[in-house]
Amino acid sequence: MLLEFRTKNYKSFSEELRFSMTPAPKQKGLEYSILTNSVGNKKYKGLCSAVIYGPNASGKTNIIGAMDTLKAIVIRGNIDNADVSSPNYASAALELIPNCNGNSAPTEFLIRFIDVGLLIEYSIKIDLGTFLDRDYHRRILEEKLIVNEKQIFFRSDTLEVSLPETIRSYINRSIRRKTPKMIEYATDSLSDTELFLTNGFKSIYAQKLAAVITNWFNNKFIVVFHAEDMRVVRKFVDPKANTVYVEKTLTDAAKAFGVTANALGYKPGGEKNEEDSELYSIFGDKLLPAEVFESYGTIRFINEFPLVLYALMNGGTLVVDEFDASIHPMALMNIINIFHNDSLNKNCAQLIFNTHNPIFLDASLLRRDEIKFVERDEKTGNSIHYALSDFRTADGVRKGEDYMSNYFVSRYGAVRDIDFTPLLENVIENEELANA
Q: Are 281 and 293 spatial neighbours (Cβ–Cβ below 8 Å)?
C-alpha cells in the first residue's frame, strides 16, 4: 500500500512534489475509500484511489514518470543509463531528468509504503548534473532506508548501518554482530552510481529485506507510463501463459464492456518473437487481429483490464497515465467503485490515474483528498501539485458542493483558458496578404 511519494528537480517539478495517499485530517465521508494496514500493533490508513487533473503540459504525466523512474532505478540497482526500450525515456536516460531551465540541484526521490507487515521508507538524492549532460560524473549523494520508523542505513559521505530488533528475522544468518570491518568492506565495494540497498546492504546485511523492497517495486508497484504499453501487460499477466486473466475472464470483461459478437484472447508470437503477444478477436476457429476488428477504446480497455485484476488480487498499486482515454467514463467509474468496494478490494489495492474528464469531480464518487491537481507557472515553467482537501471550506469544497462547476470557473486552478482564434486570424490574414 503506497502512502507517499516525493520528488524534487524532476523535469517540471523543480521544487518538491509531495504526492500523498494518506487520508487528509478532518475529511469526512466515503469511509469505504479508506484502506487500513497493520504494522505490528499500529494501524496505518491509505487512500484506495486518486485522480489527477490539470491542463495539457502542466506536469501530470511527470508525476507518473517520476514514479516509473524511481522504480527503474531500484530494480536495476544503479543510476547509470540503461539500454532498454521504454516509453518513459527518462527512466533509462537519466540526463533527461533535471529541470531544463539550467537547474543543477540534485534530484531527489522518496517513497513510503507498507508490504508484508513492514512500513518502509526509502529515499535517494542523486547528482545528475544539468539537463542533457550525459557525460557528467553522476553520483549518489544520499541514500536512506527506514523500516517501521527506525533508520536501517544512511549513506552520504560516510555509511551508517543499524540492525534493530524490528528487522532481526530479515538479517543474513552469517551476521551475529556488526563490526567496523563490515562497514569498511561495504563502503569500499560501493561505487558512486550503485545503490547500497541492492548491492552491499543486500549481500552483506539483509538479503531478505532487500528482496521484500525490490519485490514490491517489481510486482506490486504497477506503473503504466503509456496506457497502451503492452510491455507492462506482458510483465504482470503473461499473455503467453494463457492464464485466466487473458482467456475466460478477458472475454467476460469484454462482454460487460459491450463486445458481444466474439471472444478475445492473446496469441503468442512465433519462435523468433516469443515476447510479442497480440490481441485477437476469436470467431470459432478463426482469428482476426483485434486492431482490424475492434475499436481503439475496446483494445485499450482489454489491455488494461488484466492489470486491474492483477492489482486487486495481489494488493498492488496501479498507476496509469490517462487511464480513461478512449474508454467510456461509466466503465471507469465502475472500476473506481470496485477499488472502493471492501468486499472485492480485500488486499489494499490502489488505483491512481490522471485525466481531463471532469465527470470524476463528484463528491459522491471521490473524497476531496483523492482529487489532485497540477498546474504550471507560465513564467518559470515549474509545476506545482495540491489536493482539493488543501482548500478551505470557504473556497467551495464543502460536502455537497459542485466540484465540477467550481473547477471550470477556475476556483481550484489547474485549468487554462484556450483560444486559438487570434492564431487562426493571423494565419488567414498572412495567407490573404501573400495572395494579394
A: yes
Sheet of 286-289: strands edge to edge? 263-268, 277-283, 286-289
Contact 288, 318 (CB under 8 A): no
Cβ-based neighbours of 296, under 8 Å, separated by 6 or more: 326
Domain, as residue range, for 295: 230-316
Contact 160, 43 (CB under 8 A): no
Distance of CA 234 to the CA centre of its chain: 17
SS3 375: strand
- The dihedral through the CA atoms of 171, 176, 177, 178 has a sign that is negative
pLDDT digits (tens, 9 = 90+) for 288-329: 887 788 777 777 777 788 888 889 999 999 999 988 776 778
Instruction: Look at residue 272 in the predicted model and tell me its pLDDT.
Output: 41
pLDDT in tens, 421-434: 787 778 787 777 77
Q: Is 211 helix (H, G, I), strand (E, B) or coil?
A: helix
The model's pTM is: 0.88
DSSP secondary structure string, 424-435?
HHHHHHHHHHHH
The count of other CB atoms within 10 Å of the CB of residue 59 is 25
Of 215, 196, 102, which is closest to residue 156 (Cα–Cα)? Answer: 196
Looking at the structure, tell me whether residues 184 and 237 fall in a common domain. no
The CA-based dihedral angle spanning residues 423, 425, 431, 436, taken in that order and rounded to the nearest 10 degrees: -150
pLDDT above 50 for 245: no
* Domain termination site, one of 294, 316, 338: 316
pLDDT at 158 over 80: yes
Q: Confirm if 384 and 12 have CB atoms less than 8 A apart.
A: no
Residue keyed to cell 489532485: 372
* Residue range 398-424: mean pLDDT, rounded: 70
Residue 230 clears pLDDT 70, i.e. is over it: no
User: 92-127, pLDDT tens digit by residue?
Assistant: 999 999 988 877 899 999 999 999 999 999 999 999
Q: Are residues 77 and 194 in the same domain?
A: yes
Instruction: Yes or no: say if 374 and 414 are a contact pair by the CB < 8 Å rule.
Output: yes
Same domain, 419 and 285: no
Number of structural domains in the chain: 2
How far, CA to CA in Å, does 386 sit from each of 19, 58, 187, 259, 369? 8, 13, 39, 39, 9
> What's the CATH code of the domain at 153?
3.40.50
